[in-house]
Specification:
GO terms for molecular function: lyase activity. The protein is of the alpha/beta class. The protein has one domain: Alpha-Beta Barrel (TIM Barrel). 45% of the residues lie in helices and 15% in strands. The chain has nine helices and nine strands. It has helices at 9-21, 32-45, 59-69, 84-93, 105-113, 125-134, 149-156, 172-181, 202-216, and strands spanning 23-27, 49-53, 75-79, 97-99, 117-119, 121-122, 139-141, 164-166, 185-188. The protein has a nine-stranded parallel β-sheet with strand order 5-4-3-2-1-9-8-7-6, with helices on both faces. The termini are far apart.
Length: 221
C-alpha cells in the first residue's frame, strides 16, 4: 500500500499523542511492579507515553501493570516488536502502539489491523519511506546517537512530512538537538531514571524525569 489508508482513527489518535508528548519513556528489563512504580513516578514528572520492550521476561505483564496503574490519558505501548503474533499479544495486554527496530511489513499490517499506532524502525531515507508507505504512523530513526541530530536535519530535507521519532542512546541534550533538527518525538530509557533503574527511588525517578523534560525542551502535562 502507498501512504496507507488503513491507518485507523484510534491509531492516528495515539500517534498524535506520541507527537504531542514528545518523550516516550522506555522500560527495558524491568519487572512488572517496577514498571508500575516507575511509570507512576514519571507520570508525576509529566510524561504521558510509555514503552515496555518485549525482549525481556514478563514484558506483557509489565504492559498490563502500567495500563492498570496509569490514568487513561497515558499511552502504553510495546517496543522491540519483531513478529505479528507479538503485536496481537501486546494489544491483548493493553498496548495501544507498537515500536520496532526494523521495517517489517507483516508487523505493520497486523498493527494497523489491531487498531494500534505503528512505529517501525528505519535509518536511511529509503527505509523511512518504505516504513511510511507500509502504513507507519511515525517512523523511528534508530540508532540516532552514533550520527546525531544532523542525520535528522538531512532526512528532513526530502522527507519533510513524515513524522520521526528518534531512539537509541538519547540523552536530554541529544533530544533537544534532534527536536531542533525536526524530530517529532524521542524514545528515552536510562536518562529518565537518573541512576541505575533497579535502585532509583520513586523520588529519584520523578526528579530525573522533570529535569530531562526541562533540559530537552519537552515539558508536558
Amino acid at each position: 500500500m502507498s501512504d496507507s489508508t488503513a491507518r485507523t482513527a484510534a491509531g492516528q489518535a495515539v500517534a498524535a499523542q506520541l507527537e504531542r508528548d514528545r518523550v516516550v519513556a522506555i522500560f527495558r528489563g524491568l519487572p512488572p511492579e517496577r514498571c508500575r512504580d516507575a511509570g507512576l513516578a514519571l507520570f508525576e514528572a509529566g510524561l504521558r507515553s510509555f514503552e515496555v520492550t518485549l525482549n525481556t521476561d514478563q514484558a506483557l505483564d509489565g504492559i498490563r501493570a502500567l495500563r492498570d496503574a496509569l490514568p487513561a490519558e497515558a499511552a502504553v505501548g510495546a517496543g522491540t516488536v519483531l513478529t505479528a503474533d507479538d503485536v496481537t499479544a501486546a494489544r491483548r495486554a493493553g498496548a495501544s502502539f507498537v515500536i520496532s527496530p526494523d521495517v517489517d511489513e507483516p508487523v505493520v499490517s497486523r498493527t494497523l489491523d489491531e487498531g494500534m499506532a505503528s512505529v517501525p524502525g528505519a535509518f536511511t531515507a529509503t527505509e523511512v519511506v518504505r516504513a511510511w508507505r507500509a502504513g507507519a504512523h511515525l517512523v523511528k530513526v534508530f540508532p540516532i546517537s552514533p550520527v546525531g541530530a544532523e542525520h535528522i536535519r538531512q532526512l528532513r530535507g526530502p522527507l519533510a512530512d513524515i513524522p520521526l521519532l528518534v531512539s537509541g542512546g538519547v540523552d536530554a541534550g541529544l533530544a533537544a538537538e534532534c527536536f531542533a533538527a525536526g524530530a517529532d518525538a524521542a524514545g528515552v530509557g536510562l536518562p529518565l531514571f537518573g541512576v541505575d533503574p533497579d535502585s532509583a527511588s520513586v523520588a529519584d525517578i520523578t526528579d530525573a524525569g522533570r529535569r530531562f523534560l526541562q533540559k530537552a525542551g519537552a515539558g508536558q502535562g
